[in-house]
Structure to design on (144 residues):
């Protein structure tokens, strides 16, 4: 795992959380984070992709997540909702990143930012989603 990519995911979690809470323009949020963290070492383009991708794919992401949740998406804790949406986006749009890496990264962020034991919920939901979105990759891994 790249530390720079991990930092991009961490910042993306904060940015999507802010977007969910304030409903502000995503472009403005991205630019604000880039200004605030200009001296940080992270993958700027990956951060941009994650943060702009979630709102752009929100209907698809929430539709994919909803059957795996125990409540409506809107009722999931804001931090966990941000992490689930970002994890779903990465599983869907970044097949070059192994599904196990995607899940692990977002579970670790849930441990950092989320509620106590919220990482277990994130792990369960993203694992089920990976089995749907990455079935070929998972099957190949089991064979290999």
């Amino acid at each position: 795992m790249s530390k720079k990519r991990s930092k991009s995911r961490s910042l993306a979690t904060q940015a999507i959380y802010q977007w969910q809470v304030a409903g502000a323009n995503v472009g403005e949020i991205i630019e604000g984070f880039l200004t605030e963290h200009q001296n940080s070492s992270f993958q700027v383009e990956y951060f941009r992709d994650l943060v702009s991708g979630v709102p752009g794919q929100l209907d698809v992401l929430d539709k994919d997540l909803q059957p795996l949740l125990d409540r409506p998406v809107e009722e999931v804790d804001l931090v966990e909702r941000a992490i689930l949406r970002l994890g779903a986006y990465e599983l869907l749009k970044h097949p070059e990143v192994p599904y196990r890496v995607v899940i692990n990264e977002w579970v670790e962020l849930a441990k950092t930012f989320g509620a106590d034991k919220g990482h277990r919920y994130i792990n369960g939901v993203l694992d089920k989603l990976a089995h749907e979105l990455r079935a070929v990759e998972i099957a190949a891994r089991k064979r290999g």
About this structure: The chain is about 75% helix and 0% strand. The CA atoms of residues 65 and 84 lie 8 Å apart. The mean pLDDT is 95. The chain has one domain: 3-143.
